[in-house]
Amino acid sequence: MAEQQQVPAEILKKIKRIEIDTRKMVNNIFSGEYHTKFKGQGMTFSDFREYVAGDDVRNIAWTLMARAGKPYVKTFEEERELTLMICVDVSGSNDFGSRDHFKGETLAYVAATLAFSAIKNNDHVGLLLFSDDVELFVPPKKGKNHVYRILREILFYKPKSTKTKISTALDYLRGILKKRATIFVLSDFQDQDYQASMTFLEKKHEVIAGLVTDPAEFMFPDVGLIDLHDSETGETVLIDTSNPVFREEMKTKFQNDFESFQRNLKRSGVDSFTFEADDNFHKSLLAFFKRRKSR
Fold first, then answer.
1. Which segments of the chain does DSSP mark as H helices, in order?
2. Global pTM?
3. Which CATH superfamily is domain 2-38+80-293 in?
């Protein structure tokens, strides 16, 4: 409780608002989709039974056979608990939004929906916040209070850097996660050279990339002369948005970034979904779950 008292009241209020907003989705929509797709990713030891013809000899318990004088085999059951890691980009480029929500706010809502789905199914859930470095790591645990902590960190944490280096976060997870996990990487993916790290991480874990976009990135509005601030570099430049050449250059840049994102994930064998920075993120997330379920 002492930890909660150190958090400003407006942050706690926002956490409660996110819980209320996402609860209906989790209870009525996402729980079944989440459970069906991500449960049962491994096998754990259950018991011993006598060997019968056709059993896999690799499962024979040799020590028990020596004591009992007859062969026994190990039996296994599907592992029902999942470890879910939510990896969230907190770099400066997510402090952008042309509608009612910044990209970073929408990332928080997506993370909340995933986290509440995890605890509803009694799974472990952890958090990693990253910029061009690992900003914060919260080890996977169970329980509602743990999810509250995760949401507080996403909303309240002040990043030390505004830049992005996705490979740093992926390499860190590969080193620290010993048990197989499902990892959601939530970012605008305005970065390069993360493909190799994602490929290595995917070999041991299930990695899913969630790309957040804003409509203005692909169709920059004509609003005349404005000061454009780059949240990652800290630079501010005066631009003329009425210039069609500039708007076309911006559109081309983000289109190229999006195509690069798709190529990188395809080569890495990583699944993905895309959502806009607005209130309709749940539609993209649900469509993603349903698409995976139908495979």
1. 2-5, 9-25, 31-38, 62-68, 103-120, 144-156, 166-176, 195-204, 215-218, 244-268, 281-293
2. 0.75
3. von Willebrand factor, type A domain (3.40.50.410)
